[in-house]
Amino acid sequence: MRLVLPIRAVAVVTSLISTPQPAQAQLTGHGGPVRAIAVSADGKTILSGSFDTAAIRWSLATESAEQVLRFHSDAVNAVAFLKDGRMVTAGADGRIAIWTTGRQQPDHVLEGHRAPVAALAISPDGAMLASASWDHTVRLWSLADGMQRVMEGHSQNVNGVAFTPDGKSVVSVGYDLTLRIWRLPEGVPQVVVALPSPQNAVAVAPDGEIVTGAADGKLRMLSPDGIESGEVQAAPTPVVALAKSNDGTLIAAAGIGGTVAIVDRKARALLRVLAGSGLPVWAVAFVPDGQTLLTGGADGKVRRWNVLTGDPVGSDLPGGPADPLAAYAGDHGAEVFRACIACHTLSDKEPRRAGPTLAGLYGRKIASLPGYRFSDALKTMNIIWTPETVAKLFEIGPNAYTPGTKMPEQRIGSAEDRRALTDFLARATAN
């Protein structure tokens, strides 16, 4: 997490702000706040990480979840795409996992941090991974062999990290009010800059200019050698995440107050403010077209925006409300099921997600739903889905009850919660 409580409230410069627009376009699936977002190089795939301990790989074209990555034992704080298309997730459990699309377990796990990992960065040549952690360190990892280098110097939590465009330095920021530029390959601080407020995020533009986001709501611009060259008041509350457009012209600054500021970096001007649900926005990312921004926050949704107009892009999932479980408010079984909506729909009228629809579930033989590709192992099993078999699935776990499944491992320890879930499914999935 990058939360820093505000030091003081500062008024936003209003003369350059357009009227905020309510967000409508959503990707709904996480069972908790969205903490991190990354976009593939071709702009077709999104990776999001959440406080629900999972990451989801989404198709932007179909607005559907294609894969749920479950490995971390705590919140997924940072995500990234590697140059070769693989994915990286980092968690509050201090671990970093590297994934191949379609595989249910990580290819590699990088361990060494002793506290939550808050941010990730990929080197320009794709050979190195940098991680920032609340253990006060920055670490460099070789993606070829997993070897790590520890860079020490920050005295408090390190919240942001970025490579310079030439790949010869790493920039980090933290709660200790400092920005550090680390020279590579030595891994020693080349420059240490004292700043007036705790720092939550950092980005480096293609021309080498450094931009930081701070607890006082300001963006600060620094030259490649660390000399302050300008600032913009982006929000009256802490800025907790930054993203830059591919050409570096625009900076998006997410605030804990629920707004996202769009800043013209070179003009040092606040262009407009996007206002969503009013809840904290923890993550921002530009799509490569430079005109679309993705945001994620405490409402558990990934939202899309037109950067140039401030308008929401796209529509909600057809045939249902923004929250697929809105009609079941107050239903305990629906709340237990919420962890499943990233992969499964309750109705066959909704767009397909990563797993098969549960419409008409009870009475159906396992792996018999037409149009879904089940594993060969499931096709040989003689299980009929009933309240009893679904309860058993979550009592002992999918790996034990249905070996060979693509379903992420998860259990429901409480018999009361299992009964609530099976009762809910009986009501919600009946044809």
From TrEMBL:
UniProtKB keywords: Electron transport, Heme, Iron, Metal-binding, Repeat, Signal, Transport, WD repeat
SMART domains: WD40
Name by which UniProt lists this protein: Cytochrome c
GO molecular function, one term: metal ion binding
WD repeats by residue range: 27-68, 69-99, 110-151, 151-184, 274-315
InterPro entries for the chain: Cyt_c-like_dom, Cyt_c-like_dom_sf, Cyt_c_1A/1B, WD40/YVTN_repeat-like_dom_sf, WD40_PAC1, WD40_repeat_dom_sf, WD40_rpt
Domain Cytochrome c, chain residue ranges per copy: 328-429
Signal sequence residues: 1-25
